[in-house]
Design goal:
By secondary structure, the chain is of the alpha/beta class. It contains nine helices and twelve strands. It has two domains: about 1-55, Spermidine synthase, tetramerisation domain (Spermidine Synthase, Chain: A, domain 2), CATH 2.30.140; about 55-279, Vaccinia Virus protein VP39 (Rossmann fold), CATH 3.40.50. β6, α2 and β7 form a beta-alpha-beta unit. The chain is globular. Bound molecules: S-adenosylmethionine (SAM). S-adenosylmethionine binds near residues 46, 52, 83, 155 and 187.
Length: about 280
Amino acid sequence: MQWLDARDSDTLMIRHRVVNSVHKERSAYQEIEVIDTVDFGRMLLLDGIIQTSVRDEFIYHEMLAHVPLFVHPNPKRVLIIGGGDGGTLRETLKHPSVEEVHLVEIDERVIDASRKYLPELSGGFDDPRAKVVIRDGIEYVAEVKGAYDVILIDAPDPEGAAVGLFSTDFYANARDALGDDGVLAAQTESPFIDPKLVKEIYDRIWAQFPLCRLYTAHVPSYSVGIWSFALALKRPEMFERYRRAGGEFKTRYYNSEIHAAAFALPEYILELLGDKARA
Ligand code: SAM
């Protein structure tokens, strides 16, 4: 009997019954693995850490993409940093206003593996509006000014090449890569398992934007479930004026009620984030 010991931290592991090992390789950056599991179906792992599963990926990808894309009044140009599995790209391309999506991924082999083994997620790579740039996202955002309406940071945990995707300089450069109505969203880890890290990331983003709000979703394959995202705005008044989704396209998790509810935080997270989270 084969099991995946999915490490959450140095002190917590969750075991998944594996049906089949589909693919394994070592790229220049990381070990890439695709496996089939009983409860979550096909999974993508990087260095042994779960990135996504076909069973629950819609929750994470819809919440990372649609919350900021419905806050921006007319998103046309979108930048995705990381996101090599294609799930965030797929959701972004559902917005009819979106004319161009640039996806900057450091490891081409993640995209190749996803195209081959995770077709449910990676179909967007064939869309003519999608342009893939194989490059370090940290360098890329440092060179772009005022070019994007929305930036989505679809990073793995802050380890290896991804550490800088959670840095103050990176968030400042991302702000400058946005236009005047710019909106940024980032995955910001688990506030239950890694409260100190979530607070650090939140403070770093807040320091670069006039408004930053944390929102959450339950993603069963991640850690102990509760996952956080940050939404940062150059124009704070846009926060309340999100466009209400009205059946423009199909979603399985996101809707207008979930959009509003996701920003309602439990007391233990509000306490962690401090006064500015309550204002
Ligand atoms: N949803 C996932 C999660 O939170 O577990 C992350 C999705 S995606 C697979 C993350 C991608 O970011 C990986 O494919 C990785 O290669 C890429 N990545 C890591 N560091 C990067 C960097 N500095 N620039 C661009 N992409 C990077």
